[in-house]
């Protein structure tokens, strides 16, 4: 552990730490473009110059390892002058098209020009022209004129996805990023290059021209797309509802979590948020009688559910919860079912085809909370519940989110079950065949519209936060369940998800000791998760 | 007149054959060296004051001694035959007329650094040198000189100047884009294919057999205190007899021009580039300098690859700089920002000046941009461009200003 001095502050860093990271450790930012902690060192942008005592000229920080007794200064006059020069070099051929560039507002050319540039422009000659608006693949658009050739995207495709689609072609100031012949940037993690591109060269085809980034609000969340639980930021547009055809969720961005996804997110997860603002969202409770569906009030819907639960013997009640529900929802549901002694419960509807999986981030289980559901007693498959319904043993069936016909359950059994059960209740965020064949539909808030936690396949419990208000009259599942319990004479004693998490921690030993505060932004792994056999390999592909 | 060492066999029309080389005493040095301890060979080369003749002038024996002693994997010797420095054409003659001298130098050097596989990276445009060298390698294999402890792989370049830069060459050799590698690690620690590697110029290695055969003291005595031997000067431009001349490193530039028959054209000397395109220019008053590494360094320029380009009074310095600036803009690999961006920018400015559309602050902008970029890049390419940018303008400013309206 070498000890060095940076800007007069002493700091001890692990052996092998470079000067950018060592400076970060004392709160000093060394500006840089090509350096990325998840990628190999390129040393190309030349911006991260620092002064090292007894060294004749400024040295790049990214490729300099901290050594014992090193004295580093990041703010000498010559370092400042060098940075200014490097910024000028970066910008002489840049089109300066910020007003029409999607990156404006989160562009490191803008940020660093203001912080470290501020020179008087001297470039009078015509700039080098390069290809613009070139689709590299389904998700990524290239503007080669804006590119500063930091090579992050190239190294990413070489070192992280090992797909090698991108290269730098031509020489000198005609150099440009491009695809190798016959290739397309269509790997399963392609859009990460947009995040690591420090400028507006690589933009997101889904997001571009939808909304200016300064109108976006951000909430820390977790991707619900599979059992990995990649940490994300949800960017929402509340300030310009007339943009992007009213879609509120503008984009998802990976959020660094060293233990889960590092800096990365798969494309399926990144673009999996469309359902939140989709036209098929369920926004009001409704009742279906004799083939026609009519809007209802929450009071009516809750009364119908509570009435059935009060009236029917537990053996005639079935519940198919969902591994897409949060731990808090499942715990509320567990309390309700315990109150009534209901035992016909399940959560898993097996998929029709095996989900895609790889040795990087993507998990075959496309549910964010299968392990949580199992730990809370909902691990069973839905087949037995459906069979019980089909055999006319159930009078009431409550389905959460699933489209029962979309999975591998036998179609005949599902059709029969929904035909013979007196009262089928559907609670979910979006309409599907099951909701269309239910007697009651009680709309649920999407994951971006509420708080909660998921337990990933490794037993890591992670929080997701509310980014926007629930659409229409939708409510979080736990809230719907709480209202039912109130009518049954029992209080959930929870006005927000965190209250339920506290109860869960007390009641379920696997979660003992956890709290929202402890989970923080990056989550905690259950102490027993390792022993339960659910721990799998970490995101090995992200190792660098 | 100094002794002829490197070009000793050139006058024999069959000099490229093994038989002729042997007849002239060839491979005797190798026979001697194979009886020597590797460290003793390196020591001999150090004592001979041999300095790299490709451009940087680094002491060769010292470079060899950087190979880690405890390394157990392969060590590579890579020969830089990608001669591309503007005004330099000496290595092609060695490859064409004395290829066995290089092979013998490689055998000795390989023994010194414990290398069993060697690569020769030959400039793509060098067809005849490549043919001659390939034929010599085949002869050496057939004669059992190669394949018994040293193998040689010949690799042809594809025309990029940057692939003559030590680590750009290694990247290219590895099948990658010819981008210079970031240092550290240096090639002697982690070079070709991640292994310790020595990169030597053709002419440098051709000096090694005579050193071993005739002794370090003899070789050192041919030059100055800090640099031994003779070297080959590519003399071109406005001289009466443009050619490659071998002379001691202690010869003066004035003597060299006289050797080449004196100034042609107007007969009045205006300027000389002493060490290839990347060397700072010297005025007619500055040619009483010795042509060793340190002599030219003290004169504010460099010997580089010893490509001497002579300009008489009729040569336009701004036009000369424009041609050179176009070369650097065209050949910058584009990896580092300062070089990638400013070589193109500076060319545009110089071109505009020559075109009669210069702005009055262009010259100061060029000087400032060049100075700001110097020393900020991965390799020496940009510093090589800066030498001419600054020296041409500072030494011949009036000539540039005359082209700028309202200057």
Strand-helix topology:
The complex is a heterodimer of chains A (544) and B (407).
Chain A: E1 3-6, E2 9-12, H1 19-25, E3 49-52, E4 59-60, E5 71-73, H2 77-91, H3 108-117, E6 134-135, E7 140-142, H4 152-159, E8 166-169, E9 176-179, H5 192-196, E10 202-204, E11 216-222, E12 231-237, E13 249-254, H6 267-270, E14 286-289, E15 292-295, H7 298-311, E16 317-320, H8 327-340, E17 344-346, H9 370-375, H10 383-390, E18 396-400, H11 411-420, E19 423-428, H12 433-436, E20 440-443, E21 452-455, E22 460-464, H13 477-487, H14 497-507, H15 516-519, E23 524-525
Parallel strand pairs in A: 1-5, 16-17, 16-18, 18-19, 19-20
Antiparallel strand pairs in A: 1-2, 3-4, 3-5, 6-7, 7-10, 8-9, 11-12, 12-13, 14-15, 14-20, 21-22, 22-23
Helix pairs in contact in A: 2-3, 7-13, 8-13, 8-14, 10-11
Chain B: H1 18-23, H2 28-33, H3 38-47, H4 60-64, E1 76-81, H5 91-97, H6 99-113, E2 117-122, H7 127-142, E3 151-156, H8 166-173, E4 197-201, H9 202-206, H10 208-214, H11 216-221, E5 230-237, E6 243-248, H12 253-259, E7 269-273, E8 282-283, H13 293-298, E9 307-312, H14 317-331, H15 337-354, H16 362-373, H17 381-395, H18 397-401
Parallel strand pairs in B: 1-2, 1-4, 2-3, 5-9
Antiparallel strand pairs in B: 5-6, 7-8, 7-9
Helix pairs in contact in B: 3-6, 5-6, 5-7, 14-15, 14-17, 15-16, 15-17, 16-17
Relevant terms:
heterodimer, A: 544 residues, alpha+beta, Ubiquitin-like (UB roll), Alpha-Beta Plaits, Rossmann fold, 3 domains, seven-stranded mixed β-sheet, five-stranded mixed β-sheet, 23 strands, 24% helix, B: 407 residues, alpha/beta, de novo design (two linked rop proteins), four-stranded parallel β-sheet, 9 strands, 42% helix, globular
CATH superfamily of the largest domain in chain B: NADH-ubiquinone oxidoreductase 51kDa subunit
| Order of the strands making up the biggest sheet of chain A | 15-14-20-19-18-16-17
Radius of gyration of chain A from CA coordinates: 27 Å
The number of domains of chain A is 3
What structural class do the secondary elements of chain A suggest? alpha+beta
Major beta sheet of chain A, specifics? 7 strands, mixed
Strand portion of chain B: 5-15%
Distance between the termini of chain A: 21 Å
Q: Output the CATH class name of the largest domain in chain A.
A: Alpha Beta
Low-confidence stretches of chain A: 530-544
Give the helix level of chain A as a range of percent: 10-25%
State the domain count of chain B.
3
Largest pleated sheet of chain B: 5 strands, mixed
Q: Biggest interface and its residues per chain? A: A-B, 36 and 34 residues
Which architecture of the largest domain in chain A per CATH?
A: 3-Layer(aba) Sandwich
Q: Choose one word for the global shape of chain B.
A: globular
């Amino acid at each position: 552990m070498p000890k060095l001095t940076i800007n007069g502050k002493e700091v001890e860093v692990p052996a092998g730490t470079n000067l950018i990271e060592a400076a970060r450790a004392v709160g000093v930012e060394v500006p840089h473009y090509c350096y990325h902690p998840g990628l190999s060192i390129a040393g190309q942008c030349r911006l991260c110059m620092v002064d090292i005592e007894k060294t004749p000229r400024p040295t790049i920080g990214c490729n300099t390892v901290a050594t014992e007794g090193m004295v580093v200064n990041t703010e000498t006059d010559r370092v400042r002058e060098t940075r200014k020069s490097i910024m000028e070099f970066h910008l002489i051929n840049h089109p300066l098209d910020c007003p029409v560039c999607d990156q404006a507002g989160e562009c490191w050319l803008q940020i660093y020009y203001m912080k470290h540039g501020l020179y008087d422009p001297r470039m009078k000659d015509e700039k080098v022209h390069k290809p613009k608006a070139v689709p590299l693949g389904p998700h990524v658009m290239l503007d080669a004129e804006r590119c500063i050739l930091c090579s992050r995207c190239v190294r990413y495709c070489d070192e992280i996805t090992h797909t090698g689609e991108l290269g730098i072609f031509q020489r000198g100031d005609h150099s440009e990023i491009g695809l190798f012949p016959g290739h397309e940037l269509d790997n399963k993690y392609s859009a990460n290059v947009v995040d690591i591109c420090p400028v507006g060269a690589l933009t997101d085809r889904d997001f571009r021209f939808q909304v200016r980034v300064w109108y976006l609000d951000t909430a820390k969340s977790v991707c619900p797309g599979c059992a990995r639980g990649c940490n994300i930021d949800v960017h929402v547009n509340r300030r310009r509802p007339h943009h992007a055809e009213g879609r509120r969720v503008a984009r998802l961005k990976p959020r660094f979590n060293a233990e889960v996804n590092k800096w990365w997110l798969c494309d399926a997860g990144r673009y999996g948020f469309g359902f939140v603002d989709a036209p098929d969202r369920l926004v009001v409770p409704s009742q279906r009688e004799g083939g026609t569906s009519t809007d209802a009030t929450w009071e009516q819907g809750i009364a119908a559910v509570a009435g059935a639960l009060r009236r029917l013997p537990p053996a005639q009640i079935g519940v198919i919860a969902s591994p897409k529900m949060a731990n808090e929802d499942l715990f509320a549901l567990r309390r309700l079912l315990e109150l009534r002694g209901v035992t016909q419960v399940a959560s898993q509807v097996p998929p029709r085809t095996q989900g895609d999986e790889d040795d990087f981030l993507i998990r075959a289980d496309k549910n964010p909370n299968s392990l949580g559901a199992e730990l809370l007693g909902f691990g069973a498959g839905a087949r037995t519940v459906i069979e019980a319904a089909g055999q006319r043993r159930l009078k009431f069936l409550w389905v959460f989110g699933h489209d029962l016909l979309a999975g591998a359950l036998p179609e005949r059994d599902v059709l029969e079950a929904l035909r013979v059960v007196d009262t089928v209740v559907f609670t979910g965020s979006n309409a599907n065949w099951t909701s269309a064949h239910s007697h009651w539909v009680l709309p649920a808030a999407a994951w971006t519209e509420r708080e909660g936690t998921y337990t990933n396949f490794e037993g890591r419990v992670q929080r997701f936060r509310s980014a926007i208000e629930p659409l229409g009259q939708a409510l979080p599942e736990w809230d719907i369940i709480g209202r039912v319990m109130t009518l049954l004479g029992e209080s959930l004693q929870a006005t927000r998800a965190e209250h339920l998490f506290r109860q869960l921690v007390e009641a379920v030993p696997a979660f003992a000791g956890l709290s929202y505060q402890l989970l923080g932004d990056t989550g905690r792994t259950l102490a027993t998760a390792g022993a339960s056999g659910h721990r799998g390999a970490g995101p090995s592909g992200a190792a660098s | 007149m100094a002794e002829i060492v490197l070009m000793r066999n050139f006058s024999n029309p069959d000099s490229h054959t093994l038989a002729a080389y042997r007849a002239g005493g060839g491979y005797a040095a190798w026979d001697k060296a194979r009886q020597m301890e590797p460290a003793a060979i390196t020591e001999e080369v150090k004592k001979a004051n041999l300095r790299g003749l490709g451009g940087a002038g680094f002491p060769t024996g010292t470079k060899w001694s950087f190979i880690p002693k405890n390394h157990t994997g392969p060590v590579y010797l890579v020969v830089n035959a990608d001669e591309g420095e503007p005004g330099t054409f000496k290595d092609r003659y060695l490859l064409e007329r004395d290829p066995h001298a290089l092979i013998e130098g490689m055998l000795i050097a390989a023994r010194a650094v414990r290398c069993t596989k060697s690569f020769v990276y030959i400039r793509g445009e060098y067809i005849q040198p490549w043919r001659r060298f390939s034929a010599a390698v085949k002869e050496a294999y057939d004669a059992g000189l190669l394949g018994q402890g040293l193998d040689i792989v010949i690799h042809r370049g594809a025309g990029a100047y940057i692939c003559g830069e030590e680590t750009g060459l290694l990247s290219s050799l590895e099948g990658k884009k010819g981008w210079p590698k970031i240092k550290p690690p240096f090639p002697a620690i982690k070079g070709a294919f991640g292994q310790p590697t020595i990169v030597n110029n053709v002419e440098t290695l051709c000096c090694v057999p005579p050193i071993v055969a005739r002794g370090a003291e003899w070789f050192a005595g041919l030059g100055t205190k800090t640099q031994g031997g003779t070297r080959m000067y590519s003399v071109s431009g406005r001289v009466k007899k443009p050619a490659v001349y071998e002379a001691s490193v202690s010869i003066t530039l004035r003597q060299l021009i006289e050797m080449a028959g004196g100034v042609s054209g107007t007969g009045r000397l205006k300027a000389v580039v002493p060490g290839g395109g990347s060397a700072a220019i010297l005025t007619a008053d500055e040619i009483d300098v010795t042509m060793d590494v340190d002599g030219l360094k003290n004169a504010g320029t460099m010997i580089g690859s010893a490509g001497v380009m002579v300009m008489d009074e009729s040569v336009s310095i701004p036009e000369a700089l424009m041609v050179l600036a176009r070369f650097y803009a065209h050949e910058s690999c584009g990896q580092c920002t300062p070089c990638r961006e400013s070589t193109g920018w500076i060319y545009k400015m110089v071109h505009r000046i020559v075109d009669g559309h210069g702005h009055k602050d262009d010259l100061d902008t060029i000087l400032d941009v060049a100075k700001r970029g110097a020393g900020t890049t991965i390799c020496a390419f940009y510093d090589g461009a800066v030498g001419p940018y600054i020296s041409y303008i500072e030494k011949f400013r009036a000539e540039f200003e005359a082209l700028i309206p309202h200057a």
